[in-house]
Amino acid sequence: MKPVMEWFSRVVLIVTVCYVVVFGLIWFLRPARALASGFLLGGLISLYNVFHLSFRLRIAGLRIQSGSRKMAGLHMTVRVLAIVFGTLIVYRFPTRIDYRSFVLSLLFGYLLLVTVMSYYYLKGNGKTSSDEGGEIHGSDSESEISRNDL
Amino acid sequence: MSLAVLAGGIMIAFGALAAGIGNGVLFSRYLEGIARQPEAQGTLFGQSMIALGLVEALPVISIAFGILVLFGII
After folding, report:
1. Integer Cα distance of B68 and A127 in angstroms
2. Complex ipTM
3. Sign of the CA dihedral A76, A52, A82, A105?
4. Virtual CA dihedral for A23, A28, A32, A34, nearest 10 degrees?
5. Quick check: A107 pLDDT over 80?
6. d(Cα B59, Cα B66) in Å, to the nearest integer?
7. At what angle do helices B3-36 and A76-92 cross, to 10 degrees?
8. What's the gap in Å between the CA of A28 and the closest CA on chain B?
9. Which UniProt keywords are present, listed alphabetically (chain A) (predicted)?
10. How many domains does chain A have?
11. Residue A98 and residue A89 in contact, taking contact as beta carbons nearer than 8 Å
12. Domain region containing B72
């Protein structure tokens, strides 16, 4: 699973940098400051949400694999509060941040997520070891050994 | 209480409810799949990410719009 996560993190990082540079330039050059700041705020919150979601999903999977009894959730409250935080900023500065662009750009991260992961699987990278007999995905091999021994 | 406040509250509440149910079902199936077949975690991770992204997109928009309606911006 590690290659999927690493690949996805790299893509999200590159897209985030490009996103910030593009909208930062638009904001700096002042063609449409309110629109640019709305897109910037919403896009950053959305990308953070997507990254956080993938991180929590990975942690939960690893905990199950290692047999830990400690519960791991998806921490959805954190993501909802991030959106609430952004919305409160929009409410506080209505003339400087456009709310339409903010709400629109909240979808950006999720669209990116679906596009990137679909592309990953369409390329044929998501096959398991049972499909090809290749590298075992996941970090521990103890569970494999114990199951085979049993 | 104005109708805008009621509308905003309903948007936020139902968005959160739907996301909670959807995420809960997906996440439980993901964990169940890993527990049954640990070597399939790579595949399950990507597919769960796609499904979770699709599930979470709607409540995100409904919460943002709900708060904006609640504060009377829209």
Report:
1. 43
2. 0.85
3. negative
4. 80
5. yes
6. 10
7. 150
8. 26
9. Cell membrane, Membrane, Transmembrane, Transmembrane helix
10. 1
11. no
12. 21-74
**Which structural domain, as residue segments, surrounds residue A47?**
2-125
Which amino acid makes up residue A67? G
Q: Inspect the interface and report whether the beta carbons of A103 and B64 lie closer than 8 Å.
A: yes
Burial (CB < 10 A; 0-12, 13-18, 19+), residue B60, is buried
Give the separation between CA A148 and CA B38, rounded to whole angstroms.
Answer: 13
Amino acid at B7: A
Question: H helices of chain A, where?
Answer: 2-29, 33-66, 76-92, 99-105, 108-122, 129-132, 142-149
Measured in whole angstroms, the distance separating CA B69 from the mean position of its chain's CA atoms is: 19
Chain A residues within an 8 Å CB radius of B57 = 107, 110-111
In chain B, % of residues over pLDDT 70: 99
Tell me, yes or no, whether A137 lies in a domain: no
CATH number at B66 reads 1.20.20.10
Top mean-pLDDT range of A37-46, A132-141, B44-53: A37-46
Find the helix packing angle between B41-70 and A76-92, rounded to 10°: 30
Q: For residue B15, tell me if it sits in a domain.
A: no
Q: Does A81 touch chain B (CB under 8 A)?
A: no
Residues B32-46: tens digit of each pLDDT: 999 899 888 888 888
Domain count, chain B: 1
